[in-house]
Amino acid sequence: MKESFLTDISNKDSTIVFDVIIIGGGLAGLCNAIHLSKYDKKVLLIEKNEYPKHKVCGEYISNEVLPYLKFLEVNPFDFGAVKIDEFQLSTTKNKVISAILPLGGFGISRYQLDAVLAEKAKENGVTILQDQVINIDFKKDLFLVETKENKIFTTKITIGAFGKRSLLDVKMERDFIKKTSPYLGVKIHVKGSFPNNLVALHNFKGGYCGVSKVEKNVINLCYITNY
Ligand SMILES: Cc1cc2nc3c(=O)[nH]c(=O)nc-3n(C[C@H](O)[C@H](O)[C@H](O)COP(=O)(O)OP(=O)(O)OC[C@H]3O[C@@H](n4cnc5c(N)ncnc54)[C@H](O)[C@@H]3O)c2cc1C
């Protein structure tokens, strides 16, 4: 992180209690937290939103991650994940192709998955704080992490898992944040008739829409469009 973009908060009161502070409790932050807790590290995870929470996402996950989830001792199928092994793609000219997915994947909502991972992290002793990190300082090999609720935490290792386009990216004046994105992502959960084992991607002018099932017989429609 570029020190010059950060406010000096080293004169504020803080104590070192945690081995690692993780900023952001999405998939990356939560998996990191569980992983580190398995090595007896004292972890503080700071997430600005309350669990469970919805997230714009296609909610199709490749089976590639199953061995890692097993290592974390989280089985998505215990929480209603749906097995998916067929793929369909339609073009803007309404041509449709289908294929069997050799590796396959599964569908589970982020509402469910993030909450399950957060529960596992807590069970493993991770401290989860619902607060927003507003500033990070780095002085003498130590990170000082300041939150909206006026708390300051100090640690040698801080993991930034705050996704894309966070307030912290603005604060650090990251190049990509200065560029406005022409894309808009939309997600909606609906009920209806759709095969359990299919993930479909339908292209339209300016974007595409993913359709697949998640837990509780719910269909996820998630599209990205150019506005
Ligand atoms: C439209 C769309 C569809 C997608 N579909 C799929 C898909 O089908 N399958 C797939 O595998 N991936 C998909 N992805 C990608 C997937 O959503 C991301 O890879 C994943 O969410 C990244 O996880 P993350 O933990 O890095 O970030 P996030 O999930 O964004 O988590 C970041 C967390 O940090 C928190 N946070 C941010 N700033 C702060 C702060 N200052 N203080 C405290 N907390 C903070 C946020 O509240 C959030 O919970 C899709 C993405 C988009 C945009």
Q: In short, what is this structure?
A:
This protein is of the alpha/beta class.
Write structural notes for this entry:
- The protein has helices at residues 27-37, 66-71, 110-123, 167-171, 175-178, and strands spanning 15-16, 20-23, 43-47, 60-62, 82-90, 96-107, 127-130, 133-139, 142-147, 152-155, 157-160, 183-190, 198-204, 207-213, 219-226.
- By secondary structure, the protein is of the alpha/beta class.
- It has two domains: 1-59 and 109-179, FAD/NAD(P)-binding domain, CATH 3.50.50; 82-105 and 180-227, no CATH class.
- The radius of gyration is 20 Å and the shape is globular.
- Flavin-adenine dinucleotide is lined by residues 23-29, 46-49, 55-61, 132-133, 161-163, 166-168, 185, 222, 224.
Task: Supply database-style keywords.
227 residues, alpha/beta, FAD/NAD(P)-binding domain, four-stranded mixed β-sheet, 5 helices, disordered N terminus, binds flavin-adenine dinucleotide
